[in-house]
Design brief:
By secondary structure, the protein is of the alpha/beta class. The protein is built from 9 helices and 6 strands; from the N terminus they run βαααααβαβαβαββα. A 6-stranded parallel sheet has the order 3-2-1-4-5-6. Helix 6 links the parallel strand 2 and strand 3. The chain binds 6-O-phosphono-alpha-D-glucopyranose and magnesium ion.
Length: 213
């Protein structure tokens, strides 16, 4: 068992199931445009920035879109997505996740969020975790999205820790790659559980108690 001084969590698909809302909002847009989109393609969007996600979806359209059109499409998706986020309450934070976070904190770990999302602050507020983490680094503060290591390097620095003393928890393959490139260990869950770069493969969030406790 390793003792990590810091744990950096991805947000969408790790702390809460906003990954589902991302999928539904992209699906609505793709359907309206008549573009093929499914869960398999959606897995490629995990951890990827909003505009890069749009590029992946539009690459199946066979059409060229101008930058202005792309901005409009990204806004349409984001407005739809934010309508789902606005419905969230602290009940959308599972007792398993909250209990595990509290356990890790009590055992002396510093806790951070490392997300590509520009909606991270809004989500944390909706689920009652505003001000809970020792550091929050999100898509508003970084120039390079995952798999670039910037977000996790920045989160470790904000925690005042060396990356090698931090564990990153991720559901995105690009997120695991970003963590390893930052010099952190990585725990994969969901779609990233199969990653060979991950040191731990979590079937449930609460398994972090055994990894870090
Ligand atoms: C997270 C999600 C991605 C999403 C990205 C940007 O990394 O896993 O699916 O595209 O954030 O999210 P945003 O809320 O800024 O559109
Ligand atoms: Mg994620």
């Amino acid at each position: 068992m390793e003792k990590y001084q810091g744990i950096i969590f991805d947000l969408d698909g790790v702390i809460c199931h906003t990954d589902r809302y991302h999928y539904l909002a992209w699906k609505a847009l793709a359907d309206r445009l008549g573009i093929c989109f499914n869960e398999k393609i959606n897995n490629r969007l995990r951890g990827v920035s909003r505009m890069e996600s749009l590029e992946i979806i539009l690459s199946n359209s066979g059409q060229i879109y101008t930058d202005t059109e792309k901005d409009k499409l990204a806004n349409e998706k984001n407005e739809n997505y934010r309508r789902s986020l606005a419905q969230m309450t602290p009940e959308n934070l599972s007792p398993e996740v909250k209990g595990t976070l509290d356990f890790l904190r009590k055992s002396g770990c510093r806790l951070a969020i490392g997300s590509s999302s520009k909606n991270a602050g809004f989500i944390l507020e909706r689920i009652g975790l505003n001000g809970y983490f020792d550091a929050v680094v999100d898509g508003n503060q970084i120039s390079h999205a995952k798999p670039d290591p910037e977000v996790f390097r920045c989160a470790a620095r904000r925690l005042g820790l060396a990356p090698e003393n931090c564990l990153v928890v991720e559901d995105a393959l690009v997120g695991i790659e970003a963590a390893v490139r930052a010099g952190c260990d990585a725990a994969g869950m969901g779609d990233a559980r199969k990653s060979s770069l991950a040191k731990y493969h979590l079937a449930a969030f609460s398994e972090l108690k055994e990894v870090c406790g």
